[in-house]
């Protein structure tokens, strides 16, 4: 068995069912091995960067490994953005890339990245963007290296790994000896029972003293499937639930104890509940920038912070917890509930202030579609278990604020690394992994222009993603930042093609809409068609996303910003 054949066999062993990659001479053997696989669906992308994003999408809501590949040199380097996303957003992803023949090392051969004699050092670069990068040096080690890589991807906080395959190991006559099944043997991260009892005692004491407790759930809770447990915890002990943007949908946002998104573009009801809380129980939440108002100093002053996370490094970042519980989110909550049951009797109903943003009238500054109403319509029409992916941009804030999710539906923003077009392409991988789910991408026109050509990949492979383009012909967030920081703007406006005509030229469905009614008709048609669809929604330029740099509220945030500006001057 050849090296790439052994790798494909090992991927089959661990349940991989799709491979996303770019064509190239150093990947030719892998492409042939994938052709002959009965289990893995190969998808060649127009650009390897898209392949890495698709691998992230494939792993996003599954317990399966996302897999991407590329040829040596520039093809391999195109994978970096997706691997950085997998690193920051906790996706188990394996990238395999070619590597120039070692017998010519240092001679500057085609695609050489040995780091010798003014060649790029791909080993250093992949090591910097993954949990671990490997250089296969002996064909006999193929199964061992692949097994270590796959297990590393899933261990603890999931993330990306990478394997270099030198071209000389793919030459005629080089075979893998000792081919064996590749085993995935990652033990779940279980909570320490003594720590669970200690935290349960603290929470029980807070409940007995009528202190105000809130749960703040993040993507780790969603990824671990902790929704049922968190809902039970909230209902039994009458604890209001806040989420980060990526935690939306872990429990239905219409639940009586759900009070909205806690973030700089979140809901006033969530900010109020957080401000008034005495105890904050963070579950699967990294307490990153948007969820902490730019790492606001004193955010947890006067509060007891209990932090549940699968990664110990999260306890040593901007906010040090009073009590830390290292654990998978679902297993942690499963353990906390009975520990609390032993200590807590009946709990009176919590006083929860409901959200009013759904009922709030949106003012129209122009006749074009308001992005808030566009987001509301997407949420209203989203089918059961549907997924909304928001790419980087102002539309993310509109979608996070106005899309109201039911339990089983999901929302994912561009993560901490935050590349534009990450979800424009990642949606294809998500749809391949979970074809029964509706996948909708909310993206800015700037995002779509960066990588919308992968629409042809979706058409070629019959992958029915729905792309909704928030079309205002400008980089809105950059424009707002320039105005706030410099009181002027530059280089943020651009021209767009006819996105709908482009979609139809590719063989997809395309709609250009200028009213909310026309959008809803197009969206319903897209849901019914089962075809890749692009909806170009012409939105007003004059709407500004709901945002505050302070958890005290929008007005307090504006005052604070003005005061800071005056102090600087």
Please, how many helices?
21
Low-confidence spans: none
Gyration radius, to the nearest Å?
Answer: 25 Å
Gap between N and C termini: 70 Å
Structural class: alpha/beta
The profile of the biggest β sheet is:
6 strands, parallel
Q: Give the percentage of residues in beta strands.
A: 15-25%
Give the tally of β-strands: 18
The helicity comes to 25-40%
Strand order of the largest sheet: 2-1-3-4-6-5
Shape: globular
Overall pLDDT confidence: 94
Give a description of the structure.
By secondary structure, the chain is α/β, with parallel strands linked by helices. The protein has helices at 3-13, 28-35, 48-60, 74-77, 80-89, 122-128, 142-154, 193-208, 219-223, 227-237, 268-276, 329-341, 371-381, 394-402, 422-433, 445-451, 455-460, 476-486, 499-506, 516-529, 554-568; strands spanning 18-21, 41-44, 66-70, 93-99, 132-135, 160-166, 213-217, 241-243, 258-261, 279-283, 304-309, 323-326, 387-390, 410-413, 439-444, 466-471, 509-513, 533-538. The mean pLDDT is 94.
Which labels suit this protein?
569 residues, alpha/beta, six-stranded parallel beta sheet, 18 strands, 16% strand
Topology:
Elements lengths: L2 H11 L4 E4 L6 H8 L5 E4 L3 H13 L5 E5 L3 H4 L2 H10 L3 E7 L22 H7 L3 E4 L6 H13 L5 E7 L26 H16 L4 E5 L1 H5 L3 H11 L3 E3 L14 E4 L6 H9 L2 E5 L20 E6 L13 E4 L2 H13 L29 H11 L5 E4 L3 H9 L7 E4 L8 H12 L5 E6 H7 L3 H6 L5 E6 L4 H11 L12 H8 L2 E5 L2 H14 L3 E6 L15 H15 L1
Parallel strand pairs: 1-2, 1-3, 3-4, 4-6, 5-6, 7-8, 7-10, 8-9, 10-11, 11-12, 13-14, 13-15, 15-16, 16-18, 17-18
Helix pairs in contact: 1-2, 1-7, 3-5, 3-15, 8-12, 10-12, 13-14, 13-20
